[in-house]
Amino acid sequence: MTIIKLVAMLALGLITIASTAPAFAQTNGYRMSAGRGAAIRECNRAATKYPDYLWGDFEIDVYRSCMAQHGKQE
Q: Could you tell me the end-to-end alpha-carbon distance of the chain, in angstroms, rounded to an integer?
């Protein structure tokens, strides 16, 4: 019976820690522009057509060139 209580207390502690961790997260103060967010989403969609296991480094090359076409850093 005590093992069950110990496991239950441990689980409750882990749940408490996991639920409060995001509240203590800090941001770097940088807000991403809507244009950059849209470019990242578009370039990720374009790059996922070429997975690494089939195309090697071509996936990152597609992503980088797409971001350059949008005038954004990778």
A: 56
